[in-house]
Design brief:
- The chain has a single domain (about 1-125), classed as 60s Ribosomal Protein L30, Chain: A, CATH 3.30.1330.
- The radius of gyration is 14 Å and the shape is globular.
- The protein is α+β, with helices and mostly antiparallel strands.
- The longest helix is centred in the middle third of the chain and has 18 residues, at about 45-65.
- Strands 1-2-3-6-4-5 form a 6-stranded mixed sheet, with helices on one face.
- Helix content is about 20%, strand content about 25%.
- The mean pLDDT is about 95.
- Helix 1 (about 45-65) packs parallel to helix 2.
- The protein is built from 2 helices and 6 strands.
Length: about 130
């Protein structure tokens, strides 16, 4: 049986999906973009601010499942411009211990929801 994970501390889905699904001890998150859950507005001041908001949103989704970034075993990062990779990576890296960081792929895509610059999803295990 799967358990739907949801929190008001992260943006609500903008389509027919959930913030995360827990199956056994494994959590599968949907991609998060830089929507401020309090205002509903996108945070696009800079790529660093955008990435930080994405990670804040992901932190809240993980917390709703009683997990944190230490539980993350895999991330997927989708970016609209590979030239932003180093700035995104710098912010992303602040949330993980380099020695125990999760597996990851980073892919440049033609477009993302709401035309944002970065979207991140994760898989975590208890």
């Amino acid at each position: 049986m799967k358990e739907i994970i949801t929190t008001t501390k992260a943006p609500q889905p903008i389509g027919p999906y959930n913030q995360a699904v827990l199956k056994g001890d494994t959590l599968y998150t949907s991609g998060q973009i830089a929507i401020n859950p309090e205002s509903g507005e996108l945070v696009l001041d800079s790529i660093e601010a955008e990435t930080k908001q994405v990670m804040k949103n992901m932190k809240e989704v993980l917390a709703a499942a009683n997990m944190n970034f230490e539980n993350v075993v895999k991330t997927s990062i989708f970016i609209s411009d590979m030239n932003n990779f180093s700035k995104i990576n710098e912010v992303y890296g602040q949330y993980f211990n380099e020695d125990t960081a999760p597996a990851r792929e980073t892919v440049e895509v033609a477009n993302l929801p709401k035309f944002v610059n970065v979207e991140i999803s994760m898989i975590a295990i208890r």
